[in-house]
Amino acid sequence: MNRLSETQDSIVHDQPGITRDRTYRYAYWQDREFSVVDTGGLVFDDDTEFLPLIREQVMVALAEATVAIFVVDGQTGLTGGDEAIAGWLREHSVPVLLAVNKCESPTAGLIQSMQFWELGLGNPFPLSSIHGSGTGELLDELIKYIPPADELEESEEIRVAIVGRPNVGKSSLLNAFLGENRAIVSPISGTTRDAIDTVVERNGKTYRLVDTAGIRRKKNVEYGAEFFGINRAFKAIRRANIVLLIIDAIDRVTEQDLKLANRILEEGRACVIVVNKWDTIEKDTYTILEYEREVKARLYFMDWAKTIFVSAITGQRVEKIIDLVDQAVAEHQRRVSTAVINEVIEEAVRWHSPPTTRQGKQGKIYYGTQVSSQPPTMVLFVNDPKRFNENYRRYMESQFRQQLGFLGTPIRLIWRGKPAREVERNTANRATKV
Questions:
Q1: 121-132 pLDDT, tens digit each
Q2: Domain at 2-146, CATH class
Q3: In terms of Cα–Cα distance, which of 198, 232, 196, 230 is closest to 214?
Q4: Is 40 annotated as a binding-site member?
Q5: Can 152-332 and 338-433 be said to share one CATH topology?
Q6: Which of 99, 33, 40, 43 shows the shortest CA–CA distance to 66?
Q7: Any binding-site annotation on 213?
Q8: Residue 215 and residue 254: Cα distance in Å, rounded?
Q9: Which residues are recorded as binding GTP 2 (predicted)?
Q10: Into which CATH architecture does domain 338-433 fall?
Q11: Model pLDDT for residues 379-422, shown as the tens digit of each residue
């Protein structure tokens, strides 16, 4: 996990059972960007302590996954536990890549990996997570299952996922868009189990609206239809261009709404916050302003998302949601030239210099460039990423937003160290091209 995401966020320890919940990190290889989900160790024949909960978390991760990496220990060799997991994985439709870890020696690693052919999961990839050897070959195979960003951008349809807690009016909102009862509407929470796709045209554009199951708190969800419905909702978020986060005006912003917003942010999706059931609220001149302030305060980490107050029952402002969707999707797909990005960096550094460490070493930003869209992702090449604290990173993100906009979409800044000689060479090459 740490090797693929180039972080040290996952705890590494010889004691089994350290990892319990699912941990999400961003990673990229060549022109592909994706999320890596770290899970706990699987044990099927033991129900003590946290092991049943860990199995549940692994099932959730696998239900969401495009491809799975099954990690085995090359030094320990093939075990009964490996065979049990391999048999379980073959029962699922998710493609599996077999990573044989702890193969520090290329020659010995090849020999160590040969025994894992017995698992019937295809070619074993010998690698060393600590040293990084062999991970490139694994990633080359991995990205075959992940479409390039350009392919996603070429899709003519705008994919809109409608998500929220149970009974906030997601299906009613879908029906209000269509002018027909496409989805079942009921006061009983949990009516929608499947992710329902509906295609609608507005102003010459095609939108695929996906009504999803209401997402309850994890501890309240039993394994079964609701479990799989929620996982289809998470998949809908991942494959969407934009997500409509539906909030109940009566309940206001709840803890579960915050978790859903975090999920949208983790997946890098554009978003519009839709406060539904606005017709049920007693209002005066200042009501909408007070509500908007409260929503922004609670969802402060998504202050880039537009908020709209609607009523799916009366149709109030429902059609205006499409305008906000178009604006957010355009920003989500937008690319900015390297020259403009470096102008923003120079201006930001002029107003606020990078921090200096206690040893007197100052951070330096050499240059930046946008490497992908959906969401807009910029790489900043610096002398040492560790010299830039969280405050300065947030400052740089705010400068990009102030100068370039990006309303309705998250943006990502990747801080990468770069040797001074390489920077000088690249700068000279750019000057020659100009």
A1: 888 999 888 888
A2: alpha beta
A3: 230
A4: yes
A5: no
A6: 33
A7: yes
A8: 12
A9: 164-171, 211-215, 276-279
A10: 2-Layer Sandwich (3.30)
A11: 999 988 888 889 999 999 999 999 998 999 999 999 988 655 55
Residue 171 is assigned to a ligand binding site: yes
Q: Is 355 annotated to bind ligand? A: no
pTM (2 d.p.): 0.60
Token pair, residue 302, equals 């998504």
Provide the b/e sequence for 168-187 (b: ≥16 CB within 10 Å): bbbbbbbbbbeeeebbebee
Check whether 74 is labelled as a binding-site residue.
no
Is 165 among the annotated ligand-binding positions? yes
Phi (first) and psi of residue 15, to 5 degrees: -75, 125
104 in a known ligand binding site:
yes
The CATH homologous superfamily for domain 152-332 is: P-loop containing nucleotide triphosphate hydrolases (3.40.50.300)
Domain residue ranges of the chain, discontinuous segments joined by +: 2-146, 152-332, 338-433
Q: How far is CA 50 from CA 22, 42, 109, 220, 301, in A?
A: 13, 11, 33, 17, 32
Kindly give the parts of the chain with pLDDT less than 70: 7-24, 45-51, 53, 148-155, 180-197, 213-233, 418-434
Residue 170 is assigned to a ligand binding site: yes
Q: Which of 149, 147, 173, 146 is nearest to 160 (CA)?
A: 173
101 marked ligand binding residue: yes
- Is 41 assigned a ligand-binding role in the annotation? yes
Q: Distance (Å, rounded) from C-alpha 212 to C-alpha 235? A: 10
133 is in an annotated binding site: no
Report whether 417 belongs to an annotated binding site: no
Element (H, E) at 161: strand 158-164
